[in-house]
Amino acid sequence: MTKQTLLTTALLLAGSAVLLAQGRAFTHEDTLRGSITPERAWWDVIYYRLSIRTDLDSQRIRGSNEVHYRVLKPGQVMQIDLQPPLILERAEQDGEVLTFERITKSVYHLQLKKEQIPGAIETVTLQYRGRPRRARNAPWDGGFSWAQDGQGRAFVATSCQGLGASAWWPCKDHPADEPDSQTIALNAPLPYDAISNGRLRGITENSDSTRTFEWHVQSPINNYGVTLNIAVYEHFADTFQGEKGLLTLDYYVLPENLDKAKTQFLQVKKMLRAFEYWFGPYPFYEDGYKLVETPFLGMEHQSAIAYGNGYRNGYLGRDLSNSGHGKGWDYIIIHESGHEWFANNITYNDIADMWVHEGFTSYSEGLFVEYFYGKQAGAEYLRGLRRSIMNASPVIGPYGVNTRGSQDMYPKGANLLHTIRQIVDNDSLWRAVLRGLNRDFYHQTVSSAQVEAYLIQHTGKNLTKVFDQYLRHTSIPVLEYRFEKNQLAYRWSNCIAGFDMPVKVSLKPGEWTFLYPTTEWQTTPVREMKPADFQADENFYIYAEKVK
């Protein structure tokens, strides 16, 4: 073990000990996976060329990955991530074989021979093989899904959010570093098709009765958004005239579902109209848009959305909001495509901030409803999502250990944004802010802190305590109020110190006004008000309680 490795290990173990002291036990591997280690910090990925050969009978893969990178500062030890049971067989640079050691079950350190000079562009080629982890409950507990279509033929797909792309290919498996572009070459036996991200550059017919499908992604892409799909597919196509011109739409479905797909996938154009209105242009015109049928429910694989919702509206036929507005559209088409803006265009740089993906995208569902069915319907849908909020742990998780926060990031994140819209109280400004996020953070990785600062700056509202309350704590603020002669007294309780969110209330039927409560009692005159008429705006995610 090198001196650098020993130092890194000591520092990471110390960090893990701190996290353990905070009440959560994290391992050395968690910290290696979830942080920018010294063996990751000195180099920046600029391009991957991933090649994979899949044996459908043995369910094994063999592949290589060319890692093209820019040297940021001197460093001779490179961290590469690859999860068992896959094994790294060989690494080389400029034709020279490199030595490497396995630091933990999923982390390798490569010892580079060539001096790494800042500013230089270099390449390391990795060869690997094995039987990849089988998905236990895709996409939530992912890996390779091995299934069959209605004719008994192989139906294979990958999913790895949270688990990490290193579950099926070797890479720098941290969301803060995306390649600027990527090529994915997938080999499969005849008559199977192999579908991945971006655009199909070509299909090579091989002498061993296999074909190699070469796909290329021109845009930056997050690791978990890279996908492999193998089946006998039917392909059909369409186009959409959008804000940046003509967008190609490609659909890959099982032959048995072709007719249903041609009807169900008409919703894609509705989705694009709504989301380009709210968020700005689809972020990947260069790579096109695809829906690919998979044996699991769905996933936001960039420019190749995984679809497995059974060609029905709702979430497997259900309205998650129980509002009556969630069964008129296909949840997977709308939600997973919403991630093209929030997850694939704007990507968290630590999975602890996953709410930036899921909160905004869950919120996009309500905006889709609003675009087609009206503002009230959209609001009712979002309020309906509150029924699944648990408030058992914070939305934001611990940083640096590859761990996400609470599942509340979906409905609570959506209702946080819906609440902020009420505070802004200007729909044109709110839409401009949402579009501005996708413009100003275009193809970037970000932190929650950056997103929060952007919303504060561009709405002109001091939302610091609002974000702290809803993202970093579990209690929901209570607006306490009481009537004292001709005055209304009010304050926030069940909240963090200094919480000062404005809230809209009705003092007379049909009339709404803002109050500016703090955690201290305040009063306002209400001479002609009937106490029974008092109402807090239900679009704010709060509780209101009359006290004595």
Brief write-up:
The chain is an alpha+beta fold and 548 residues long. Helices cover 25% and strands 31% of the residues. Mean pLDDT is 95; it is low at 1-22.
Task: Kindly report the spatial arrangement of strands forming the biggest sheet.
Answer: 5-4-8-2-1-11-14-13
Strand residues, percent: 25-35%
Total helical segments: 12
What's the CATH topology name of the largest domain? Immunoglobulin-like
Query: Would you identify the regions where 5 or more consecutive residues have pLDDT less than 50?
Result: 1-22
CATH level-four homologous superfamily name of the largest domain: tricorn interacting facor f3 domain
The coarse overall form would be globular
Mean pLDDT: 95
Helix content: 10-25%
CATH class of the largest domain: Mainly Beta
Category from helices, strands and their pairing = alpha+beta
End-to-end distance, in Å?
68 Å
Domain count, please report it: 3
CATH-level-2 architecture of the largest domain:
Sandwich
Q: Tally of extended strands?
A: 29
Describe the structure.
25% of the residues lie in helices and 31% in strands. The protein is α+β, with helices and mostly antiparallel strands and 548 residues long. It has 3 domains: 3-337, tricorn interacting facor f3 domain (Immunoglobulin-like, Sandwich), CATH 2.60.40; 338-464, Neutral Protease, domain 2 (Orthogonal Bundle), CATH 1.10.390; 478-546. The strands form 7 sheets. It has an 8-stranded mixed sheet. A 5-stranded mixed sheet has the order 16-17-18-20-19, covered by helices on one side. A 4-stranded antiparallel sheet has the order 9-10-15-12, with no helix packed on it. Strand 6 and strand 7 (107-111) form a beta hairpin. The longest helix is centred in the first third of the chain and has 19 residues, at 3-21. The N and C termini lie far apart (68 Å).
